[in-house]
Design goal:
Number of strands: 0
Low-confidence stretches: none
Largest sheet: none
Helix content: 40-55%
Distance between the termini: 39 Å
Strand content: under 5%
Shape: globular
């Protein structure tokens, strides 16, 4: 099976959707992202990292 990279616009859309729906999104997140946005496992993890309120982009006072 060949996985193709998600176009950046789709990736951005997935990140935006997940940020908006973080607390209500179906769990586990990686399989849900793969089904909903048609991405591979690596792309799903990248989306998760970008959208996570717990990651580097979170405003917790740490950089």
């Amino acid at each position: 099976m060949t996985m193709t990279a998600t176009p950046p616009t789709d990736h951005d859309c997935a990140v935006a959707w997940l940020r908006e729906n973080w607390s209500t999104a179906e769990r586990p997140l990686v399989p849900m992202l793969r089904r909903r946005f048609g991405v591979g496992p690596i792309e799903a993890v990248q989306i998760l990292r970008e959208a996570s309120p717990h990651g580097r982009g979170a405003s917790d006072g740490k950089a």
